[in-house]
Amino acid sequence: MPAEIKDNASSSFWKRRKGILLQVIIVLLPPILVLRSGALLLAGVACSLLLSWIGLRLRRLRWSDMGLRTPSSPLKAILIAVVATLLLIPLSYALRQAVTSITHQSPNLEAFKTIKDNPSMLLFSLAIAWIFGAFAEEMFFRGFLMNSFSKLFAEKNFNDRVKWTLSLVVTSVLVGIGHAYEGITGMTITSIIGLCFGLIYLNSKRNLWPSILTHGLYDTVAFLFLFFGFSPDQLFK
Predict the structure, then answer these.
(1) Dihedral of alpha carbons 134, 139, 141, 143, sign
(2) Do the domain assignments include residue 160?
(3) Is residue 110, in this structure, part of any structural domain at all?
(4) How many structural domains does the chain have?
(5) What averages of pLDDT result for each successive group of 10 residues across the chain (237 residues)?
């Protein structure tokens, strides 16, 4: 069999549901294996992102096909991110109050306690938040996984809107599981906030930049609160 035909056959397999499902399982393995390992979780995300890139190459796709492309209006993308962040901060506080009242557990934020009054740790954490949170997580969860899950649902059984809705929900649950170190309350809150990031992605015509910027700004505000020892209770009384 000529090499070109073999190459086309291989590409065809990875574009089908079985091939995409196999890719999804493979890219989810690294973070699952180090789910509660603290810093190693970042390595797991990085490994998953690399595997996602390989998966896209096998499908003859690029990150731009997943939404990592210049938005038609960069200023609008920035504005969306700023407004969304301003809405998500009080929402996350309300969620914390509501979920805590049900679980009787506060989110476990021990992993971030060294940020308080520590400028060098704040800068380091912000760099990690933007690289691994804003960029890596959005590219992986919203870019690769949401697009992959949407193709796993048979077109004859689900219309486009339903497929993307199911993909959004499944991906958001996985985001929450990825924050298992924060406990059940942190996982629940993160799932809902992740769902909001996903909605931003979908409503931006599946362009990743608004959700990347929103994620980065949201984490930045959260870390600044931790650094200054500021509690939302002081603002939302």
Answers:
(1) positive
(2) yes
(3) yes
(4) 1
(5) 54 89 95 74 90 95 96 96 96 94 91 91 95 95 96 81 94 93 93 97 97 98 92 54
Residue 55 burial by Cβ neighbours in a 10 Å radius (0-12, 13-18, 19+): buried
| Dist CA 62 CA 70 (whole Å) | 14
Handedness of CA 96, 48, 55, 66 (dihedral sign): positive
Cα 194 to Cα 40, 104, 191, 197, 217, distances in angstroms? 21, 22, 5, 5, 14
Find the angle CA(94)-CA(97)-CA(101) to the nearest 5 degrees.
145
Nearest-5° Cα angle at 131, 128 to 133 = 80
Note whether 214 and 81 are within 8 A (CB): yes
Cα–Cα distance measured from residue 74 to residue 78, given in angstroms and rounded to the nearest whole number? 6
pTM over the 0.85 mark = yes
Is the separation of the CB atoms in 107 and 182 below 8 Å? yes
CA-wise closest residue to 87 among 229, 8, 193: 193
Any domain includes 31: no
Q: By residue range, what is the domain housing residue 183?
A: 65-234
